[in-house]
Amino acid sequence: MTPALTKAETEARERAEAYFTSKAALPPAEVCAQVAAAFDSLDAVLAEVVPARATVRPRPDEWSAQEVLDHLVETFRPGIDELRCVLADQRPPGEPIPAALRSKAPTLRPWPWLLDELRRQRRDVLDLLGAVPADFAGRAVAPIVMVVNVPGGEPLHWVQDIEWKAYTLVSWRLHTIDHLKQIKKGLAAGG
Fold first, then answer.
1. Domain total for the chain?
2. Could you read off the pLDDT of 66-106 as tens digits, one per residue?
3. Domain ranges, residue 135
């Protein structure tokens, strides 16, 4: 049996669901533009990371910039396949992408390789989104593991099926912005 949600958790989940609903009317070009803007912001933050310090954690219990970038690369890779599915009007097969997915050795991957891989993934995502017709009305949904911060509490996790625009914006806009803030916070703390 699932425990009852607190008021703050219920409100956080309702805000997330309202976000999903609000994005359904956006034209595909606007979805693409919002994702591109998030990638641009991430690129600006990553340009501030000194490669020699990329593996330094700001605190023992927080990811380094390299671990964050590894996480993004690892989640974007299967996410691109899922995006291809929903744009082909098919539900992605299998389970949703795990929320804290990382490679087996995130601090051993070369920083320049991670940056190059992110650039390739950015290009793939934006190419896919740029090719979506303005009148595309796909009905397929994708399952996604939602992680929403709750004021005064632990993050709330659940799996939600969402339509392609919300899926895209959560996966490549909100996810990217959340982690670029994490990198900025780490840089400010000396990581």
1. 1
2. 999 999 999 999 999 999 999 999 999 999 999 999 999 99
3. 33-141+165-188
pTM more than 0.90: yes
Take residue 77 and report the two structure tokens written for it.
Answer: 């890779």
| DSSP per-residue letters across 51-90 | GGGTT--SSTTS--HHHHHHHHHHHHHHHHHHHHHHHTT-
Report the CATH number at residue 120.
1.20.120.450
CB 140 within 8 A of CB 91: yes
Of the candidates 184, 168, 68, the one whose C-alpha atom is nearest the C-alpha of residue 124 is: 168
Contact call for residues 66 and 157 (beta carbons, < 8 A): no
Measured CA to CA, the distance from residue 76 to residue 59 in angstroms comes to 25
Q: Give domain status of residue 47, yes or no.
A: yes
